[in-house]
Amino acid sequence: MKKQVAIVHYNTPELTEACILSLRKTGCFWPVTILDNSDRQPFAAKLPFVTVLDNTKGQLIDFDAELAKYPDRLFDKTKVSNFGSVKHMLSVQYLWDVLAEKCSKDSVFKKLLKIRLIGKTDEQIIKAAHDAGLGENVYDLGYQHHARAVDEQRKASLLILPLRKEPEYKAVLPGKLFEYLASYRPILGIGQPDGAMSMILDSTRTGVVFDWEDKESIAKYIDECWEKHLEGCLRIEGDDISQFTRRNLTLRMAQLFEELTKK
Length: 263
What we know:
Blueprint: E1 5-9, H1 13-25, E2 32-36, E3 50-54, H2 63-73, H3 84-87, H4 89-105, H5 107-112, E4 115-118, H6 123-131, E5 138-142, H7 146-155, E6 159-162, H8 175-183, E7 187-190, H9 196-204, E8 207-210, H10 215-231, H11 246-262
Parallel strand pairs: 1-2, 2-3, 4-5, 6-7, 7-8
Helix pairs in contact: 4-6, 4-10
């Protein structure tokens, strides 16, 4: 019997589609139902065996309540899955290795290193960090209110933003990227160096993106950040980050519309 997978559309359409394509690559062709609550970027892609519950023009969905009753209300023997977190383990494994190697060579670094994980983090990611010898350095804070999460970001010496190791993610701009930009802290991205996220980090001079397996470059960047931290000068230069505020993005869109209507 076929089982059903529900995907909550929190982010961009590109990210949601990438999740579905990743699921298909695993050999799983279960029908997919998308609970779409994004009034800014609704999911409109036409994909086989994908159903969209459109709530972009109505009241906000209470996702906790919706998912709780989902198996009984829509389908028999439904399976509700979150498969994004496990995929991220491949994105951080080399980072764990780099940090573990530096800890083995630098006792001060090992003593001061604090890896603070906020939000729902898959147990395999935490286990991988422990297996690499970083157990004493990992602080799994779990879910925190948004204000606390933002405060943690602003206090961090270095923010890590790994993308899933999938070719579709080259065009993805995670929402977390813009929160990180607003924190004015250096950002280490792990993904495609020629992707959309890398272009923004380069243009704003707020961070860098290295390939998932580019262990040498990741290690070199960590070394550089550590030296600057010891000197008290680990900060970003930052070029016009304000261009990515909602106000300025809306202004640019309005200007675009105006230019198009004049043609």
